[in-house]
């Protein structure tokens, strides 16, 4: 399952990845913080949409990402 | 039905302790165990550095910070460096943003709106500045804002300058902005307004802006039990 950057605010199309809370291979539960993003004066922690294992991280700390971009891939718990 | 918001008045409260408390409350809010909650407090002197700040924005040498007893914290808040100390009204709203528009910048604008209204009560015309979040009087910032959001619940918030010792701002480049100033309510009015009065006024406007029914203080004991402070 691809985790994408959700809508954060009206007029905000991109933000900066400031921190990854998880690494590839980590197990996560639904709603766990995956990655921290910054826009203006706001920090947003992208929640995990489901439980599973982090298979691949596609963006790095410092990268600028757009709403809808894929941040990581989660292998879902069956 | 108007949703409710509990206010906890914490008085002068350590920054690190307040941070831990916020994180606990965020978890409780997500779990639905507590309603929207607003912490009102002030901190002993401390510089906090948000995600876009750096220690380079501290202008005073280490021994000055040590002599003045100012701690420094790097924290997961949006924005740069700022000062917190006695004489400020700090607010940390723990809100389920899914019920308040799910829009990070709208949230910042709403915090600003609360203090634009508070200042209007004292005859001060405050404004926003493009690209510089916070509440400004002319080119001077009177209320800093900066938030964190986890699972669509907010933490961090604002710091409104009632009458802090302004010298502490001169030891830093607030938010990394060099060409603007900082001011306080006392500085603008030339007289002191009691902190409790500002708290009550701010709480009232907070309720209006967020369309929340404010339940003050009375639930504190129960909250303390929930979060174990």
For this entry, give a set of tags.
heterodimer; A: 78 residues; mainly beta; OB fold (Dihydrolipoamide Acetyltransferase, E2P); 4-stranded antiparallel beta sheet; B: 229 residues; alpha/beta; BirA Bifunctional Protein, domain 2; 6 helices; 31% helix; globular
How would you describe this structure to a colleague?
The complex is a heterodimer of chains A (78) and B (229). Chain A is 0% helix and 53% strand. With 78 residues, chain A is mainly β. Chain A has a single domain (2-76), classed as Beta Barrel (OB fold (Dihydrolipoamide Acetyltransferase, E2P)), CATH 2.40.50.100. Chain B has one domain (3-227): 2-Layer Sandwich (BirA Bifunctional Protein, domain 2). Chain B contains 6 helices and 12 strands. In chain B, the strands form 2 sheets. In chain B, strands 1, 2, 6, 7, 8, 9, 10, 11 and 12 form a 9-stranded mixed beta sheet that branches. In chain B, helix 2 links the parallel strand 3 and strand 4. In chain B, helix 3 (104-121) packs across helix 5 (195-210). The longest helix of chain B is centred in the middle third of the chain and has 18 residues, at 104-121. The mean pLDDT of chain B is 92. The interface between A and B is medium-sized, with 20 and 26 residues.
Structural class of chain A: mainly beta
Number of domains of chain B: 1
Percent of sequence in beta strands of chain A: over 45%
CATH superfamily of chain B: Bira Bifunctional Protein, Domain 2
Count of helical regions of chain B: 6
- What is the CATH superfamily of chain A? RNA polymerase II/Efflux pump adaptor protein, barrel-sandwich hybrid domain
Helix percentage of chain A: under 10%
Q: What coarse outline of chain A follows from CA principal-axis ratios?
A: globular
Mean pLDDT of chain A: 95
Low-pLDDT regions of chain B: none
CATH architecture title of chain B: 2-Layer Sandwich
């Amino acid at each position: 399952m691809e985790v994408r950057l959700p809508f954060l605010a009206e007029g905000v199309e991109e933000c900066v990845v400031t921190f990854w809370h998880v690494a590839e291979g980590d197990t996560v539960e639904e709603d766990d913080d995956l990655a921290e993003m910054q826009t203006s004066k706001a920090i947003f922690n992208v929640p995990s949409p489901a439980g599973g294992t982090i298979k691949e991280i596609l963006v790095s700390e410092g990268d600028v990402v757009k709403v809808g971009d894929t941040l990581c891939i989660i292998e879902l718990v069956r | 039905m108007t949703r409710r918001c509990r206010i906890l008045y914490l008085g002068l409260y350590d920054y690190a302790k307040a941070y831990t408390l916020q994180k606990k409350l965020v978890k409780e809010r997500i779990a639905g165990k507590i309603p929207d909650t607003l912490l009102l407090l002030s901190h002993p002197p401390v510089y906090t550095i948000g995600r876009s700040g750096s220690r380079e924005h501290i202008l005073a040498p280490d021994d000055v910070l040590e002599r003045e007893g100012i701690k420094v914290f790097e924290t997961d808040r949006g924005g740069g460096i700022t000062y917190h100390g006695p004489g400020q009204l700090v607010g940390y709203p723990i809100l389920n943003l899914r019920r308040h528009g799910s829009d990070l910048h709208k949230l910042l604008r709403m915090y600003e709106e609360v203090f634009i209204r508070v200042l209007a009560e004292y005859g001060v015309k405050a404004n926003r500045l493009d690209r510089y979040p916070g509440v400004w009087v002319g080119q001077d910032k009177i209320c800093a804002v900066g938030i964190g959001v986890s699972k669509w619940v907010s933490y961090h918030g604002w710091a409104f300058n009632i009458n802090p010792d302004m010298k502490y701002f001169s030891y830093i480049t607030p938010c990394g902005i060099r060409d603007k100033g900082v001011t306080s309510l006392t500085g603008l009015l030339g007289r002191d307004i009691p902190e409790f009065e500002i708290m009550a006024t701010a709480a009232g406007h907070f309720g209006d802006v967020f369309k929340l029914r404010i339940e003050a203080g009375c639930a504190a004991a129960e909250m303390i039990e929930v979060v174990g402070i």
